[in-house]
Amino acid sequence: MAITPKERQIRKVIKQVIEDMKNVGTYRPQFDRTVRTYAEMSYDYKILMRQFEESNDQFIEEYTNKSGATNAMTTAIYSEIKMIRKEMVSYESILGLTPAGLKKINKEMDQTKKKSSNLAKALSQLGT
After folding, report:
1. DSSP strand E in the chain: where?
2. How far is the C-alpha of 103 from the C-alpha of 97, rounded, in Å?
3. Are 84 and 41 in contact (CB under 8 A)?
């Protein structure tokens, strides 16, 4: 079965994210599904940005409500772009690819190491 262009782009993002995670020390194979979801979001974001650029970067449009009043509102494409950006930053943080996310993961890893070393110390004292 041939790989679609979409799948090829998603795999490229997956590869880059895993490499970035390895560089900061946060990669675990258990994160692969989360990385895949992030890569798919990244692909969708790219499509939305292309559509946004084709609309001449229009982020406000006018609409007329039931009572006949005309108002300005954010375009659907721009609203989706804003939403997906927030989700992508959230995923980047979860994966340790933002400063705050990396700090949180490192703190949790340090606490886990301290707990396990205290347990190991207590167990070793029981053996003597």
Report:
1. 60-64, 70-74
2. 10
3. yes
- Phi, psi (rounded to 5 degrees) for 66: -60, -35
| Distance separating alpha carbons of residues 41 and 35, to the nearest angstrom | 10
DSSP string, 47-69: HHHHHHHHTTT--EEEEE-TTS-
Structure tokens at 97: 């690819």
Please state, in angstroms and rounded to a whole number, the distance separating the CA atoms of residues 76 and 52: 10
CA 64, distance to chain mean position in Å, is 36
Looking up tokens 């229009």 gives: 58
**Global pTM value:** 0.77
Integer CA distances (angstroms), 72 to 53, 55, 58, 75, in order: 20, 16, 12, 9
Is residue 60 within 8 A of residue 74, CB to CB? The reply is: yes
- The strand pairing partners of 72, in sequence order, are 62
Q: What tens digit of pLDDT does each residue of 52-85 get?
A: 999 888 888 888 888 989 998 999 999 999 999 9
